Structures are given as C-alpha cells and as structure tokens.
Amino acid sequence: MDSIGALLTPLPVKVESEPPEEQKGRNRIMKTLPCPCGRTHSRHKPPALQPGDTIGIFSPAGPVNPAALEPGMMALRAAGFRLATGRHLYAETGYLAGPDDARAEDLHHMFADAAVKAVICSRGGFGSLRLLKRIDYDLIAANPKILLGFSDITTLLAAVWHRTGLVTFHGPVIKQLTNLEQTDHNYLLDLLTGGRPPAIKLNERHKPRPGKATGILMGGNLTLWTHLVGTGYMPDLKGTLFFLEDHGEALYRVDRMLTHMALTGTLQGIAGLAAGDFTACGEAHKVYGLFGELAEELGVPMTTGLPVGHGRRNVTLPLGVRARLDTRQGTLELLESPLKSPTPETNNQ
Length: 349
Description:
Blueprint: E1 14-15, E2 54-58, H1 66-78, E3 82-85, H2 100-112, E4 116-121, H3 137-142, E5 146-149, H4 154-164, E6 168-170, H5 182-192, E7 200-201, E8 212-221, H6 222-228, E9 240-247, H7 251-263, E10 272-279, H8 284-298, E11 302-303, E12 317-319, E13 322-326, E14 331-334
Parallel strand pairs: 2-3, 2-4, 4-5, 5-6, 8-9, 9-10, 10-11
Antiparallel strand pairs: 1-3, 6-12, 7-14, 8-13, 13-14
C-alpha cells in the first residue's frame, strides 16, 4: 500500500494546442488535510462551459488505456471543446491509476489551472475514497468549476459538496460518454453550457409510493454512499431528494447496505427517494421492492426508473440544487440552474 505521508512535487498538466495559463496557487504543495465534521459553508455554483473552453480529464480511481477514452475525447472535441489531460491519466499501480499522491496532484492542478473550465473523470473503478483526506478543499473552493463523474466518483462529488459547498455533477465519465443514448449526451451538453433541460421522465418499474417532494438533489452509487457513512465527508441528507444506483451487487448486499444506512439514521429526514439502474444486481422488481419498503418506513415519496447508472442511460444530475419529484407524473425537475449566472461585463474606460 502507498505511503500515506508521501508528498510529490507539483507536476504539469498536458494541454492540447497551447500551454495553460499560469495561476497563483499552481505550485501549491499537496498536503494531507484534516477533515472536520460539521463545517458550515455557503453554496457555490461553477460557471457554465463556453465554446472553445478547455475540459480537464484525470483518473482518480482505476487505470484506463487510451483506446477506452479516445471515443469520448473525440466527442468532446467535436462539440467544440479543447482538452487537458492529467500527467497520470494512463498511469497504473495495480488496481489504481497511479499512487494516491499522484492522482490527488492531478486533481489539484486541474482546479488550480485557470485555463481548465471543467473537470471530467476518465472512469470509475476503485480508489476515489483513498483521495478524500489528501484533497486541498480550500483550493477547490477558491476555483469553482464543473466536476463530473459517477460510480466510484460518487465519493469525490459528495466530499467536495460537503467540504466546499460546490455544486457537483453526477453523470457520465469519459469512458462511458459515447455509449450513452443520444438523449443523455445532448442533455449533458445542454446542462453544462447553461441550458435549461426539460424535466426528466421516469421509466417506473415498480409501483411508486405516491406523492410530491421538493428538496436538494443528492445521490449516486449506493456502495460508495454506504462507505461514506461515519466519515467526515458525509453530507447531511436531511431535506434531500436522494437517488441511488449500483452495479454488480447481489440482492442481499443491496438490502444490507440500505438497511445499514437506515439504521445509522442517515436517511432520516430525506424528502424523497428515487432508484436508478441496478444492473447485474438480481431481479429488478426485488431490488425496487426494497426501496418501496424503505420509503414506507421513512414515509416519503419514492419512485424507480430514474435513468442513471451503468447502462445505456445516465442522465446528468447536479448535486446541491433544488429539484421537484412528482411520482404521480413520473418526473424529476430541476428548479434552478446548477451554474453561476454570467456576470455582466462592465465598461471601466
């Protein structure tokens, strides 16, 4: 296992076409930070992407090869964006994309570099949890930008939200990008460039617990949320519309994880519950039956068929914005933009 105390000298980010601009804080030395629980913060929204902006790509979790990423990278270039890649994008240390220090360093450089306007993770796998105590959250808070990923990346999204108040984005990684239905690809680009996508239609696969609920949208991978419980990086879920997805977990393990979260009191006070895809997790109706039982215990509206997960559907959902769930209409609707409103230009002459 890597030495937790090891420090690395900051490493450059590789950028296409031209080098990124230098920015104060670029040479900040990565340090292991304490994680005080209950830290209060105000919410921050990142700026929207503009045509020609640079998107940074790095690997916080499992290793990946160039051939797996090239289709997604080509799609982003075709959409009009430039790309910057982390120094350790294709590194491999066993089941990790390089040492913990190196992966955290790539994340820091992406946020410190003013030329990079959004950060998209290459893939999930395993390893993001190992980075949480190594991240400079003050650096991220000082340089708010879009952070996108799902699955193992759930831990990064939740921790960054909890520690900085920055709205993060649960959505496709680069490796998955071109495997999505075109509807979700278009939704992603529309959302991240400041559009107002329509309400998401739920393909309900189990009888919902009827009702309407409004709250802060939060969620992601069930396994990773379970592992966040009891840490200093676990957001307070009271008042949230909480959604979950997973892949390759046996039914009894899904049951055990949901039960664990309920027993810890983590789910007390949520406003609503939604189940996404649970691919390769056994019979779908039995999985969704567990969500129905939980919703009854919590007394909240519940629905299934949210198009998020490891399959062909993975609609991008911003974590930290107000949304409305209507189980009778079968819709989930964002009630505000997840992006910062552009500041009007002023004439100082």
